[in-house]
Amino acid sequence: MAPPGTTSDVKQNPELEALLEDELEKGKEGVNPESETAPRRLRQFRRAFLWAISFVALVHIFLKRILPLLHYQLQQYQDSRVIPIPGGIELGQCANWTQPLLDGDGYSADFHVNTRHALRFVSEGSLSTGEILVTQSKEVTSTNKAKVSVAVKLEDPKFLEYVRVCEVYSPQNFGYLQDPASGVGIFSVPWHPKQKGSFSVSVELPRKSNSTENALTISQFTSAMPDFRHTFKDVEGVFFQRLGVFTDRAVTAQFLFGHRMNVMTSEAPIRGTFNATEFLFLETSNAPIDVNLGLHDVASSTTWMENNEKVRYWQRPVTASLRTSNGLIRASMNLSRRSRTIELARPPLRGLIKKPMINSQNTSCHRKARLSDTINTNEGIFSISTFNKRGSIDIDFGEAPLNHTLYLDAHTSFSNVKVALPTTYEGKWAMKALHPFREIVDTRRSYKDPTGDERNRILWVDREGLFKQEGAVSWGRRVEKTPEGEVQLKSKFGRATLIL
Predict the structure, then answer these.
(1) Which of these, 279, 228, 263, lies nearest to 249 by C-alpha position?
(2) pLDDT tens, residue by residue, 161-171
(3) Closest among 261, 382, 377, 259 to 315, alpha carbons compared
(4) pLDDT digits over 191-203, tens only?
(5) Predicted structure pTM score
């Protein structure tokens, strides 16, 4: 006997069968067909998206990695001697390599470049490596030609079949060039032959006179030589209106003096003395910047009448920017305001992190650096920024004019920042760092009023919190009008030290 509610009972009871059919119909009506297809469509979309991403990645790898590798292997197999020349460059006389080197295996070639044009030096190719030295002739000459000597050291003369060294010319306003340029270019095949060699380039600029007041003016000097070390030596008698150095090797300047200067390298240090009258930009990565800077405001002011009052307008400030990602930034700076001439900066100072601030009047450079006695010891506007991601920043100021305006931003993320302000600085200051890692070093008792009026050096702390401390500093009592200068020290995870 079947239990109640079985299939036989339903068939024997027509009312129960009809009731079950009604319930089944209601259940079918409550099911949404789209609710079953939506998850399936989502899975299909995800699968198609992943296939598209994979296809794009494979195409990118093929075009950027595999195709150049195949092209490189083909050139190596064919022993290609084709040397590509960058666009915008016209070739002149090329080296014929008939002068053997006296002190080694290799050859040399000489070129003469007109310094009345912008000077351009360029290299490209796998074999274009070496060093370039820029100097000035010790003898006074009447020529406007710069002598460029290119020496190549090699193991096999077959190396010369894969390189080309020529005079180069660039038209006006090409790329970053402002004027027609002439110079020397070193080009080689893009692939790596078995032959080995290196180049040594010497650029000897002419000397107009033995007086530093009558300096040789170069309208523009540009070097785009990625695999060449750059050294500037004995060029105190040269003024560069524009200077640009773009490389991946070290840059060393015994002394550089210019209006606008831009030095960019990578994985290599920047060292030396740089003097600028308008703009200075130094940038590297994973390497230190150890320099001495002289910023000289030579811009004239403009005066006009507004509402029956005399208004003086100063042009844009002299700007300096130092940037690296991992390495110490150490800079010793002198600021000056000059009416017509420039006073050179002092040599780089060593060990500033653990040593007290050095009095710039005791440095030997000031005995011979002054170009003229036409000096204005008042005013001047300067803007300086330094950025270091994982390295320390150490900035020391020597001399600075009275009543100058200084904007300084020293920023690092994972290390320490220290700034020693000039004694003539007046304006705001701020330190953005955690409270236990902020420090103000008060050295006001070690110096006197630079004007001789026996005023006191006053320090204010206006705001102090967990992450920020703000204040101001001035000579004499604090006036209602806050000085325009502003100094900021920032360190997210390091110590900030301000020396006043």
Answers:
(1) 228
(2) 999 999 999 87
(3) 382
(4) 888 888 999 999 9
(5) 0.77
